[in-house]
Amino acid sequence: MRIIHTSDWHLGHQLLGISRQFEQQQFLDWLFEQLVQQKIDALLVAGDIFDSANPPAWAWQLLYRFLARVKQQLPQLDLVLVAGNHDSPSKLDAPDQLFKAFDIHLIGSLPRLENNQLDFDKLIVELTNKEGVVAARVAAVPFLRAGDLELGSFDDEVPDKLIAGVERIYQQLAAKITELNQPTQASIALGHAYMVSSQISEMSERRILGGNQHALPIDMLTQGYDYAGLGHLHRPQQLGGQAVYYCGSPIAMSLAEIDYKHQVKLLEFKDGELLRVDPLLVPRRVELIKVPATPLPLSQVLSLLADLTVIEQPLEQQPLLEVLVLLEQPQAMLRDKIAEAIADKAVRLVKITTSYLKVSDNSTDYPDEMLNQLEPEQVFSLKYLAQFNDKPPAKYTQAFSELLTSYQQQDN
């Protein structure tokens, strides 16, 4: 059995005011081609289908056109989609009866029966291979909010009821799948969550769980599951050397993701055993350009922009440009000067990032009102930049993230 795991489409997204409709349509067209060329049996989408709870009409059209195309041309392919923290559970659940008629499994909110037990019939989806035989079952878990977790059922000795509530849901589903499965059938978890030791990307993701910053343990997805396909983090990554994967977003959701290898995951199972997990790299249809790579004085930046070479393309395909400038003091008409330097070039200026020469070791680099709007990782990056005039190496960022996670777990 062959499966594609994808997530974080963020349909309707704008990058600093620039619509991503062209790029998202290109991704969905490419994804359909992969479903055909790779002879895929099932497509799993791990949340954040939309960028907001109220996406624009064109975002709904992208989704509906894609789903209709798949069911018309690949009627035997299984489609399973779950909500992420950006999605509206009620809006995704609204067409449930219509999607059910076309054998599309889209789960917005956690379904429970009248006795408050999990609705296994909705949460556990059978996946069939080319022969029409059930080759796997997937626990399709939407983003879980505190109200989904029955926190009142835990006694006061439980150290973290939110984490315990999430673990219980995944464990109950794993146990039910184990009960249903034959030895030759695989068990898959599909969810949208933030896990211990995972790497977030600057400016586009937050630690999430019930509105709080909680990191979930990896072992809750390794007990009873042969593969766990996650959404929420935009950087593709494998966790703990286990079969627990974030596939990442298919296009860059922020300028900080310029170096990400955006992808979907191709899984292959045989007789219930996971044979391989391969990345399928998503072509970048619109380039992200950063000039210069690190901040330089304005005169040097303007010279580099004057020498910038880009090919002529339609507006929607023109690269998105971030300009980094090192200043001694605020510069009047800065945007106008940069815009003039690129006036004859087929690029779209989306951001000017300014940094200032360090005046004193004891100076306050950033006002409190600015710091209050930033995530800890962003403050760390800014302070490193102020001291060393460069972005922090990946190993430092990872170490800081691990320390922060450890601190937050103790604090909670």
At CATH level 2, the architecture of the largest domain is: 4-Layer Sandwich
N/C terminus separation: 42 Å
State the major sheet.
Answer: 6 strands, mixed
Q: Given the helix and strand composition, which structural class is it? A: alpha/beta
Strand content: 15-25%
**Whole-number total of structural domains:** 2
Total of helices: 11
CATH topology of the largest domain: Purple Acid Phosphatase, chain A, domain 2
CATH homologous superfamily grouping of the largest domain: Metallo-dependent phosphatases
Shape estimate: globular
Helix and strand pattern:
EEEHEHEHHEHEEHEEEEEEEHEHEHHH
Q: Which strand order does the major sheet show?
A: 6-5-4-1-13-14
CATH C-level class of the largest domain is Alpha Beta
Give the proportion of residues in helices. Answer: 25-40%
How many beta-strand elements?
A: 17
Low-pLDDT residue spans: 209-213, 359-364
Average pLDDT score = 88
Task: Report the C-alpha radius of gyration, rounded.
Answer: 23 Å
Key features of this structure:
412 residues, alpha/beta, Purple Acid Phosphatase, chain A, domain 2, 2 domains, six-stranded mixed beta sheet, 11 helices, 17 strands, globular
Structure in words:
- The chain has 412 residues and is an alpha/beta fold.
- It has 2 domains: 280 residues, 4-Layer Sandwich (Purple Acid Phosphatase, chain A, domain 2), CATH 3.60.21; 124 residues, no CATH class.
- 29% of the residues lie in helices and 23% in strands.
- The chain contains 11 helices and 17 strands.
- It has a 6-stranded mixed β-sheet. A 6-stranded mixed β-sheet has the order 7-8-9-10-12-11. It has a 3-stranded parallel β-sheet with strand order 15-16-17, covered by helices on one side.
- Helix 10 runs antiparallel to helix 11.
- The two termini are 42 Å apart.
